[in-house]
Structures
1.
Amino acid sequence: MATSFHSREGDASAPHLFQRVRFDLKRRWATVVRREALGGDLLRLTFGGSDLADFQSAAFDEHVKLFVPADTTPIRAASPEQLVGRHYTPRHYDAARGELAIDFYLHEAGVLTTWARQAQPGAELIIGGPKGALVPPEDFDWYLLAGDETALPAIARRLEQLAASVRVQVVAEVARPGLEIALPTAAAADIRWVYRETEADALVQALEQLKLPAGEGYAWIAGEATQARAARQALLAKGLPRDWVKAAGYWKLGESDQHVKVED
């Protein structure tokens, strides 16, 4: 593992020092050991296996790539060309047990979604990565987390990490009322749910109307790529520095296997 450091000025003495963490890329065999419905449209699968003994994940929005066969071929017999991979957030890693939890948003279609719906203890897959990420510092005056269902695992992980004295605003979009999930945190959190059933651009509109706290803040956004870009622009229009607004497209309408950094 190698690390480097980055701030918006490129000066290691500047405030708000980001840590770049890199891991050697590795593919690991893993086996489902538990499944748990989380409410809404989210399912948690917990994986075990000796390959996970050295697993590491440094950032709340880091991602791994899960590989399963595109057809009914048993995974141990599948060729690399028969495997389909998709990106997911490592929700929690228990080093003592060597277990990794990953939350799946069970949307309408997709090879990995179908696999997760059917996966029972004993089912196998391959986990690639993570390769590393940029870890935000803890010295901002406040934080903002925003996104749709695909962002909820990262949002939930970040909320669990934040200390009691930290101010954080959350804008979370789901399809309709009743699909919210628990987001426990010790932080001073203001959590707002918005619904696509009411307004297709609910997340962006909520961010446009949001009153930001005083002081310096770091904003993180993820979801559908076009919406994530619009959400980033809405926050930049409020005067947030570009380097303090991170946006990612976790998926793109009409396309598959999209996971991209959203920039201007």
Note: The first helix runs from residue 111 to 118.
2.
Amino acid sequence: MKTRLVVVSLCVLLFSSCIVKSIQPFYTKSSINYSGKLVGNWTDNKNGQWDIRSFKDEWEKETDPNTTLSKESKEAFERFKDGYYIKYKKKDTEASFIAMPFMVDEHLFIDLTPFEYDSDDLNKLVAQHLLKTHSTAFVDITNEGFTLKWLSEKAVNKLITEKRLRIKHERTGIDEDLVLTATSEELHNFLKKFMVSDFEDKWDNDDIRRLKPNNAKP
């Protein structure tokens, strides 16, 4: 898989507002649940193009079966074999992600991590400061396709400020961006409470992507 991420920031590429980011994955191993319904070519409501593939299928296509894999490669395959390889394009920008599907009670989520970025056009010192964090989106499957809803940083910030949410976190950078530092188990438990909680603006409208298949009839 040689595709490269040619944009720096997930927030800049996908969103007009920022999403909740985490150091650790939002899923636990036991919560992983692969769904073939997400595989395909899609267009979202912001004219973004999504190419979602099975990570396992993509790996097998790109890997010579006669090649002896390193320990690290074997571990990577085992870790992501039930996930997706995603290419996202909008205008002249392109990004690639590894996405892991998982269940939070009866709700389907995906955990996304930037796969690779090309720093050829980026100041090398700046590139070394970049950290590939995790984000997570609720997946609402419909008859027409599916909708992705990312956790609103504004909503989570408000919960933390009002002391309605206690979760390990840090604020980093000049803009004091919120980054969750809790364990995957704690993050998964947080999502359970988040889904059943009743409060406004759980999902920022700017962070919602409605995906329809490219071969859908008008």
Note: Confidence is low (pLDDT under 50) at residues 1-10.
3.
Amino acid sequence: MGKKTLKQRIVDASVELFQQDGYHNVTVDRIVEHIGASKGGFYHNFKSKDELLYEIHDVFISYVIQQSQNAYDKYDTPITRLCAMLQTLTTVFDMYQAHITIFYEESRSLSDEYSAIIHKKRDDYRDILQKVIAEGQEAKVFRTELPCTIVTMAIVGMINWTYKWFKQSGPLTMEQITEVFTDMVLRAIVTEQAIEEAKQFMIKR
């Protein structure tokens, strides 16, 4: 991995400081002092602290959207696509746990302009996931009596709460937790005719 850019260093320092003391208690002066940079360097990369907070949010949201689209393109059945997307979503909570914590704790501090962009990206992610659920229902591999929108929101809501309790030093790895989530989701939504395909992703009894 190459040397981090000043922008990356500012983001990393901000994530650390915001998580430690809260967004409103950390100044630009403190951020640049923390990494030995200048305020000029900060404002060359960000026009405001608000834009920096947006960047922290955008890093992981953009990542999960791109990886989810890649998963959709790579696989060709609703079950394999869904499992790959669950893997992507849980992985981001491991990779960007601090970013996500700040997102949920400080998102109300975003300006209307940046908040609108973030909400659009969150909708974009849900649209990809809901598309997979809908396609699975059309193919009769996912239960059609379950409203597609509610299934989608239930999956997102369940995994989103991970940021509150997941610890990298905990007894289960994120990979193991992903297996549990995948098992729970598949057992809840797959049809009898699709159970054999789904079994390869379920926890063995």
Note: The CA atoms of residues 32 and 39 lie 6 Å apart.
4.
Amino acid sequence: MHTRTTPLPPVDLADPIWTVEHVALAFRVGIRAARSLIARPDFPAASRLSEARTARQYWRRERVLDFVDAAATATPEQATPAPVAPRRAATTGEPAPATAAAGPDLPRYAETDHDALAAIAALRAAQAVAS
């Protein structure tokens, strides 16, 4: 961001209009992973304030949450697989470390996109019941 511009307000998931930072916070991923998620063909279309390719993208909160609900209720056969980038070969020749097992409440990671979206939908349902 340019030094003469006003800084953006803090990200709040209750905002009606979301940016890539909101998506990253909602999915508990980094900005790069959120950009990969929004590039999926089944993710809701973004709006822009200008036609420039680098213009900031915006989404309606409800559309993103509807996408999460639809993906969580879809069976694994119906779910569109996310494109997977090839991993670089290890330079040391050592095997990759094993990942930690999932905890009893919520997994630290998800085996598939379907599992991650189901966990997010469960959190959203629990928050709706609590409020």
Note: The first strand starts at residue 17 and ends at 18.
